[in-house]
Amino acid sequence: MNKPVVVSEEALVEPVIVPDVTPDALAKAAAMGPAYIVLTGISFSHFLNDTMQSLIASIYPILKDSYALDFAQIGMITLAFQFTASLLQPLVGHFTDKKAQPFSLAIGMGFTFFGLLLLSAAHQYVVILVAAALVGLGSAVFHPESARIARLASGGRYGFAQSVFQLGGSFGTSMGPVLAALIVVPFGQPSIAWFSSIAFLAIVILWRIGRWYKPQIAAKKFTPSAPHPDAPSSRRVTTALAVLVALLFSKQLYVSSLSSYYIFYLIDKFGVSTQAAQLYLFIFLAANAVGAFFGGPLGDRFGRKYVIWFSILGALPFTLALPHVGLFAGAVLTVFIGLIISSATSSIIVFAQELMPHRFGMISGMFFGVAFGIGGLGAAVLGRVADHTGIAFVYQVCAFLPALGLLAVFLPKMPKTAH
């Protein structure tokens, strides 16, 4: 067994890299296979983290009725949460590229812990916004470094590891409406404080993962390696990153339209109860989780570009049909939409990481941040549109978003070694 690397205080002032970015370490990691215990732990932590985050959107009907909020104010709550998450994630990733912080995940989860406690006791709109921003801050710290740990534990199966990581987050997102229906709706806003125990459990798990991660850090200056002869040029890399951002925009804005307003759409169009609408939202989010898991391994096997192409453009027929069908048919369509459109998540992120492998934390943070930012800004804009035109019109417009999947044709062909 290899001895852990001892990192001195003097060495920590230098930029650090994770050993799996070097070719020799990559081959060794691939031979050893994935570290399943670590992947399970980081995925479960992602589950807990996103369960708490999705709880915010799930209690929107309660907050709307309790404080007489309009759709624009609901959108601002989403913006407050996702603005801190999106703005800070690239900065956190850039910082950890230079100086790894193995225990930052546990510390970041502390912000979520306090945000939930504050949200449970908030009786003013401004305090609700601050609580949502604190939960977003915890997310900003969590995602970039946890994605790095998932890659480090991948054993060379990067798409698979990213899918396992995303699976936890997607299932966590799907649990928010269920927990809101079972706990928050019957017991009211103060019951949100009970979910701080989930944050505490996540803190304990992430502290243990930090202890595993710390010896894996190699304290040495980064020396750029020679580029692969088939790697795309810097100009094509820039173009590809712009395309990936546009594809993520189409995917995330549509998902945000469902996660933030689908409950109101079902109540308004079909007259279902709040609890029933939350269960219909759970169906979509659960399908989203399953699709996110299978997208990564499919990308490993068939190529990420093809998975991205199919995932976003393939959802278009179903999104176009959704505004024109009944309650049951709509639930079936949301299952297909969730399965297909979410399968792009892992492939988009890993594709971007492979374009700039030596800026792993910054790229991970940027794409997670873009995802949160699009969701926040999109929710705010869609809320204003819904106030003026009605919630049904929002879904008629958003139905065309997956057509942006055509942009995948501009993605470069990556070297086979990248897969």
TrEMBL record:
Q: What does the record give under GO molecular function?
A: transmembrane transporter activity
List residues of the Major facilitator superfamily (MFS) profile domain. Answer: 38-417
Q: Which GO terms of the cellular component aspect does the record hold?
A: plasma membrane
- Classification via Gene3D superfamilies: MFS general substrate transporter like domains
Record keywords, A-Z: Membrane, Transmembrane, Transmembrane helix
| Keyword Membrane assigned | yes
Transmembrane intervals: 71-88, 100-119, 125-143, 164-185, 191-210, 241-264, 276-294, 306-322, 328-351, 363-386, 392-411
Name recorded for this polypeptide: MFS transporter, FSR family, fosmidomycin resistance protein
